[in-house]
Each structure stands twice: as structure tokens, then as C-alpha cells.
Amino acid sequence: MTPTKPAILMLEDGLVFHGTAFGKIGTTTGEICFNTGMTGYQEVFTDPSYYGQIIIMNTVHVGNYGVKDSDVESTGIKIKGLIGRNLEPRFSRIQAVGSLQEYLEKEGIVSIEDVDTRALVAHVRTKGAMNCIISSEILDVAKLKEELKKVPSMDGLELASTVSTKEVYHVGDPQAAIRISVLDFGVKHNILECMAQRGAYVRVHPAKTSLEELEKFKPHGYFLSNGPGDPAPMDYAVRTIKDILKTDKPLFGICLGHQLLALANDIPTFKMHHGHRGLNHPVKNLQTGRCEITTQNHGFGVDPEAVRASDRVEITHVNLNDDSIEGIRVKGKPAFSVQYHPEATPGPHDSRYLFDDFLQMMRP
Ligand SMILES: NC(=O)CC[C@H](N)C(=O)O
Q1: Is the beta carbon of 297 within 6 A of some atom in ligand 1?
Q2: Which domain holds residue 63?
Q3: 154 in a domain, yes or no?
Q4: If 211 and its partner were Cys, which of 72, 93, 243, 355 is the partner (CB 3.0–4.6 Å)?
């Protein structure tokens, strides 16, 4: 057994947890948030929407099935840090290529275990979103407090252009009958796969691409991706979406893409108390009356009163836990979006029909 090293977690409101170092030895800062999913940790860690955030995994054992090259949603780990009760260095899965410890170390992710995650999650649920610091090199609480003061608030932070692709790239069969131009704000791989598997050839563009540039692909429709940070400062994207809406071509948005579609219709977004992150959030489809169990990862939401008062959009999906807005459609246009993740891997898969609907809108 390698000897353990102490680590400290400190929250912006001064709460301190003493635990054990895991992953890289060092210091990291970000917004603390919790994910209630009991599986799919590698997909969570590589989801670019988590960029800038430190994740508490609520489930007790994380790492026990190791890591695998294909279980990723982007090219590498995007979370800023990881907090767990038991982050497991040993693993058991035939397909696994390495341990969580090696993976976090290789990707430079400072983490902490042996934390009472039940108490910590209860605290975040009560007090709401805030920043935190983890360190396995500075064990002086006063110094950590000073470091933590330098961290910007997630409220108002534009992060999408940082994680977006720098170069245009393609996914799917170039001969496919349907072409989709994607605006990448931090897209998850499986979203592109879900479109390619259904017969689309997809071109992925940097976040700040104009409609004129997107049109060069001669797309049958447009897609607005998920992504990190606050949608409110993303004026560049809102302008492009307004231009896309004028084309009257099909448009689909997921998560950050949903929030941006709302903003493009003059519906504001807001910072939620502590957000939704997990894989069992119940959503009701108001058109069919059916319930879907969904994966979610968001800390901002679309203003419910403004949506209800809008004469430009209608609500298609609501959250059955807290009545928040989960889906909208623009009246008189083939444009729709959802706050949750229909592409979720490992699942649930209840909402995959949204990709079928989107592709159907573009079929000749
Ligand atoms: N998954 C996402 O696209 C997240 C959107 C946005 N960053 C939020 O936290 O609400």
C-alpha cells in the first residue's frame, strides 16, 4: 500500500473537510456541485459542460470499474477536481485499461476522498452553489481562504468558447442524405454519434462561427450543443441563433443550446440554487403525456415566468420534481430544445426519440 497523504477541502462559506489526497498532488479551485448518478463516472468527468467545476460524486464507490478509452464524452477530463467518499484505486472490469487513480494523475486532476459526502451534499443542497478549493499541498486553512477569494463566480462566466473546437471537423458518412451544422459550445461526443447513427453527416464548428460560415456546408438543419458556464454573456451565440431562426430550417438545442434558444427569443436565464446533476430526473412530455427518466447536468435554467408569458415559444417538457422548464418549441418554426440530455451514456435512453424527431424534420 502506498502511504496516504492528507488533503483539505474548503468551501467559500468557510466549511472545511479533512480527507485523503487522490489523483494529482496539488491545488485546484472551482464551483462545487454534486452528481447523484451511481454509474457513468468517466462520462461525467469528460463532459465539457463540467468545465470549471469540482464534482462531488454522491455514490459511495467511484473507480471500481476502472476507466476505458471509449467511455469518454470529449478528448479528456474536463472537471477541475473530484470529491468522493471512497475513490477506489483498484478496479474490476475486463474492458478496463487502467485505474481511476492513474487516470486522474495522468490528466492532472487534484482530488480528495474520505470526505463525508452525505454531510457535504446536504450542506450544498441547503446553502446553494458556491466555489471551493481542494489542496494536498497547502494544508494551512488561512492560506486556502486567500486562494479561494481569487476564484471568479460561475454567475456571469463565459466558458463555452474556451472548450469549443478550434478547427472544423466532421462526424458520420459524407454520403449521408442529411447534413447538420453544429455550433460547438463544448459538445459531448455521443450527441454527434446519435445524429450520425441516424443517417446524418455532421460538421462541427467553433462557438463563434457566423451563419454565413455555417451555411457553406449546405446543411439541412442546425444543432446547438451543450457546454459549460453561464449562457447570459454569450451574445455572439444569441446573434447567430437569431440569424439561424430566420432561415426556417430545423434547429435543435441541448442544455446550454436550450438556454441559448430561450435567450434568442428574449427569455432570460437564471442561476439555479444548486442545479440538477444526475441520471434519474423525471420529465413530463406535455405533448404525449408520457414521463421520461433523464440525465441532467445544469446549474442555470430558463426563467419559467418569462417562458409562460412569451408569445413566441411554448413549453413542451417540464420537470416533475420542481416544475422547472425542460423543453421549449418556437411557435411557427421547426426549432426546439431540451434542458436535459437525450444522448446520455450509459443512459437512460428514454429520450433518444428527440434525435429521431429532429432527423425526421430534415428528411426529404
Ligand atoms: N450541460 C450543459 O450544457 C450545461 C449548461 C450550463 N452550463 C448550465 O450549467 O446550466
Answers
A1: yes
A2: 6-149
A3: no
A4: 243
Q: How high is the ipTM of this complex?
A: 0.98
In the block, which residue shows the cell 451555411?
215
Residue 179 in grid coordinates: 447534413
Q: Using CA atoms, how far apart are residues 168 and 77, in angstroms rounded to an integer?
A: 21
Of the residues 113, 129, 149, which one is the last residue of a structural domain?
Answer: 149
Q: Tell me the per-residue pLDDT of 144-175, one tens digit each, with 9 for 90 and over.
A: 999 999 999 999 999 999 999 999 999 999 99
Q: What is the pLDDT of residues 307-349, one digit of tens each?
A: 999 999 999 999 999 999 999 999 999 999 999 999 999 999 9
Distance CA 345, CA 322 (A): 24
**Is 227 a pocket residue for ligand 1 (Cβ < 6 Å)?**
yes
Kindly give the distance from the C-alpha atom of residue 174 to the centroid of ligand 1, in angstroms, as a whole number. 30
SS3 221: strand
Tell me what the mean pLDDT of segment 277-298 comes to: 98
Task: Return the residue whose CA atom lies nearest to atom 3 of ligand 1.
Answer: 226
pLDDT interval class at 248 (50, 70, 90): very high
Q: DSSP characters for 143-164?
A: HHHHHHHTSPPSTT---HHHHS
Q: For ligand 1, what atom is nearest to the CA of residue 159?
A: 7
**DSSP string of 276-312, one letter each residue:** EEEEEEEEEETTT--EEEEEEEEEEEE-HHHHHH-SS
Residues 216 and 353 grouped into a single domain: yes
Nearest to 255, CA basis, from 326, 305, 316, 204: 326
Per cent of the chain over pLDDT 90 is 99
Cβ of 299 below 6 Å from ligand 1: yes
